[in-house]
User: Which sequence fits this backbone?
């Protein structure tokens, strides 16, 4: 871990939520780049008021505290930046094909393996701090019923890939899912490295144009029919997703023309399910 991110770590076996803890520490003058890490969260938080399942010893539950000199309206760009960082890190460490569901879910196949929750505090149009919360299902084997159909883990995906391969080679496999455990420390280091690299470049460039192509190559929604639903679940747009632009917005071709969607409190789904 050579860079600034994660040089200082605040670790506890159990926290309610690493984001909540990072926000508490930020008020107490904690440093830019502080990594808040837990082995288990008892009240892990997701987007749109949802919870994030965080059983002991299974995942990466981390929050990075950032104190950038950045216009508040640019803070939302950090979430797709983080999504690309995690997807690249997952591919490097596990070899699994990690894709991005706009703006910030990482999926393998059509199931979610990582979620990102960015929270910001501002004061008279200045950023006080940003907390970048990342949850990765690494060695998880069991999920709560409400997400069983849409969630997966890196361990399970490695196991399924090995099963497929051994079937193709007409060999039975006695391998158990436990034999596909992924080194969480190696993955955490890779995530921090990618994050810092993209983050530094973003501060120099001021927008996401430099990573737009890499992001769009991994965009699972691209050229697919999508439904965009706002937080109230009352307004809905359907159309074909294009790519993400340099501001981190998703372009959608609708019957009435091209629409630009900002992340905020919207969710993007396939016409029939979570991705498709
Ligand atoms: C989502 O997809 O809804 C976002 C999930 C974010 C979960 C992570 S786990 C670490 C950090 N602490 C939290 O309470 N939430 C984020």
Assistant:
């Amino acid at each position: 871990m050579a860079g600034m991110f994660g040089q200082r770590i605040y670790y506890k076996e159990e926290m309610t939520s690493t984001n909540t803890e990072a926000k508490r520490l930020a008020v107490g003058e904690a440093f830019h780049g502080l990594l808040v890490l837990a082995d288990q969260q008892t009240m892990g938080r997701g987007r749109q008021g949802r919870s994030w399942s965080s059983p002991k010893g299974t995942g990466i539950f981390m929050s990075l505290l950032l104190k950038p000199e950045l216009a508040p309206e640019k803070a939302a760009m950090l979430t797709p930046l983080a999504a690309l960082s995690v997807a690249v890190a997952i591919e490097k460490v596990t070899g699994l094909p990690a894709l991005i569901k706009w703006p910030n879910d990482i999926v393998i196949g059509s199931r979610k393996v990582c979620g990102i929750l960015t929270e910001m505090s501002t004061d008279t149009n200045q950023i006080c701090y940003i907390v970048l919360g990342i949850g990765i299902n690494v060695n998880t084997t069991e999920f709560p019923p409400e997400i069983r159909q849409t969630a997966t883990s890196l361990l399970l995906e490695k196991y399924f890939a090995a099963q497929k391969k051994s079937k193709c080679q007409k060999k039975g496999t006695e391998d158990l899912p436990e034999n596909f455990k992924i080194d969480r420390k190696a993955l955490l280091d890779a995530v921090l490295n990618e994050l810092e690299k993209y983050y530094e470049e973003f501060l120099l460039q001021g927008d996401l144009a430099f990573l737009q192509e890499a992001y769009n190559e991994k965009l699972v929604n691209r050229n697919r029919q999508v439904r965009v639903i706002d937080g109230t679940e009352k307004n809905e747009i359907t159309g074909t997703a294009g790519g993400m632009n340099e501001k981190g917005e998703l372009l959608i071709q609708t019957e009435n023309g091209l629409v630009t969607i900002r992340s905020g409190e919207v969710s993007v789904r396939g016409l029939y399910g979570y991705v498709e």
Remarks:
- The longest strand covers residues 111-123.
